[in-house]
Amino acid sequence: MTTSTPPTPTPSAKNPEQINPPGGAERRGIGQVLRSQLQQSLAFATLVVLIIFFSVSSSSFFTVSNISGILLSTAVIGILAVGTTFVIITGGIDLSIGTGMTLCAVMTGVFITNMGLPLVVGVIGGIATGALMGFINGFNITFLGLPPFIATLAMMLIAQGLALVISGVAPIYFAEQAFKDIALGTLIPGLPNAVLILFLCALVAYVVLSKTILGRYTFAIGSNEEATRLSGVNTRKWTILIYTVAGIFTGIAGVVIAARLGSAQPQLGTGYELQAIAAVIIGGTSLLGGRGSILGTLIGALIMSVLINGLRILSIQTEWQNVVVGIVILVAVFTDSLRRRREA
Amino acid sequence: MSLESVGTADRSRNLSNEAGSIVTTKLLEVQGISKSFPGVQALKDVQFELDRGEVLALVGENGAGKSSLMKILSGIYTRDEGTISFEGRPVEIEGPRAAQALGISIIHQEMNLMPHLTVAQNIYIGREPRSLGGFALRERALNKKTAELLARLRIDLDPRQEVGELTVAKQQMVEIAKALSVDSKVLIMDEPTSSLTASESETLFRLIEGLKADGTGIIYISHRMEELGRIADRVTVIRDGRYVGTLAKGSFDVPTIIEMMVGRHIDENARPTAIDTHDNDVVLKVEDLSTRNFINGVSFELRRGEILGFAGLMGAGRTEVARAIIGADPRTSGTITVNGKVVSITKPTDAVRHGIGYLSEDRKSLGLLLGQTVSENILLPSLPNFSNALGFMQPAKGRNVAKRYVDQLKIKTPSVQQVTKLLSGGNQQKVVIAKWLERDCDILIFDEPTRGIDVGAKDEIYALLTDLAARGKSIIVISSELPEVLRLSHRIAVMATGRITGFLDNEKASQNTIMELATRGHE
Fold first, then answer.
1. Compositional bias of type Pro residues: which residue ranges (chain A) (predicted)?
2. What is the ipTM of this complex?
3. CATH topology for A40-343?
């Protein structure tokens, strides 16, 4: 049996034609904001608690060098996570970002080391590789009608294979210090450039997601793709663009990891996509689409790094770290589903 | 009456055929539209015309082709044949955007909103105020523009509120505001009142009157016949994808329209043939049934071959009684006796084991696997009977049984392998019935058996239920439609606020006596 309108009393009867009590909208507005931020606030609280816990447990945790190390280890996963946040908000998924990142790193190596192209050209080439992969993902999803899971799973394998073939299953080393400085230099004293790049990426992504047409359609498609299409929005075009944007971030991550390691390691990459997706989910972005934030993703990525770093400092076996991260994901998604159940 | 109007239609068609050069001043003129999908002719030679400042009601049964026709006009489908003239010019409508550009807006039957976006973001999706070369959003301008639009339409909503947080009725208002935010010359409304209360509908009608005065042409699709007299200037009826006729204001009444829709006469005052079931065995006896803070001391008996109607207002507790009987909700007290034996029913499986089948009002999500075939749905509860000792399915055996039901219940489907989703509402309901019959349920509880089923098919369901009772099944019908309860039930239990306020034999029951009992205890 259905009950339609909630029993909100009408505070003003001055206009009987009004079907919505004016005060109700405001009140619910605040409640709704709180609720929609709940997951993100929970994530933030978790992060703070973790930091306090590890700081108390070990004196070597809350030191400038350790914090800087945590941030550096967050950079690559963080950049991937920021890019894939776009895709997940559309209700899609991108499994190709891990090995895709590796292919971008390998291509950067090919451009700079093997072909001897200028640094800037090599970097742009690496990022363009990511953009191209994203574009192809988007095309396969929209025009060939493949489910994102399948399209990007295929791309994951293709990228992995190509990275191995192109590199000849051997690392490509970078000789130039200037390239390594992309990740390890310190434009801001004490802060590795890779971290700076992560924050810049997050800032740009935040602006794009909240202030631009692309961001608006990212949420619209995730919320109700068919309705968006019927509203006259070219959803295919925008979906391709969104996957391309995610690919650009994959490319940036590829350049950063190559710079950090001083080499392109073709065997690397598998598993990065799942860590990035985990960061996005811990940060409160819904796998069902329509909801999510860059800030949340950033917090999610930090939680994972802090956890891993803290457990290491407490001398807990590496093998246990994955178990803990897995449990964190379960808890994060469970609280998210609790919230949704309350909304329904 | 219907024949006469068909004649008129033919004449007007001939007229326009001969005189192709006549300058028409109609806002929208649609001629000879045909559209087929693989295996289905959805529309065949359909026509209508629409003037400025007019409300044209488009009626027909579910599946008659109304929605397909509107999808052609709004650019979602392309037609196979026919012409569409807009303000005298022939036009091609190649997509939702092209329709918008012409000034044709549609409010779809199914909600087409983005629940995670705000009211303003929904209304102006695709047309947001922008800056910086069209890439940056101007959120404040968007909200201001929306506030102005809503004020003009006298719809009181906060532009910044998230749509998923609104009630269905308010979401409907957002849809309407969205359609009217473009400069619409033609507004198509597909069952806009289906989820609105009477007073909300009245607000909508006043909105429509305002639009009419501004010269907007409105195509109004509705299943609520009583609305047509209130809002429509003319009524066009289509049936089975074909044009039947058009009636002008003053010359249409509900029985005429229904007759044109279904193609035969339907007696709204029919009653069940009086079969005396008073002496039959009691198959189901419910005593002192209560649930935590709702159902209170409900007792009744159901006899073999009897149809017992449950009437009452929304929220009287009828569905809750059914759910408590089948063990879907916990009971705080109550004894249930089936065929003279007290039984313990704590979960729906127990109910099925004792031969009680419950057919939910929400057929699509609770009663059927829409993506599965007719045969799979019918056999689902009885699968162990159609597999051998090793658990392997015996498809031929199952198909034959399913075929028998398709014949027996006259389920209209090309084959038992048809996907259930593609059947009409009435035929889907029959599949659910077949499912429980095969499971050997002798007691069937129908919750709103004809919800979402159109007039013609309703009659068939009524006939089917009557026939089932005549063959010894015992039936409980829960219905919010009083004519339906009166039409079907041998006896009627009336509920109010969680208790039964009285039983009426059909001969003594009328809408008035039922309503009197249904409102008892409300004061």
1. 1-10
2. 0.75
3. ABC transporter involved in vitamin B12 uptake, BtuC (1.10.3470)
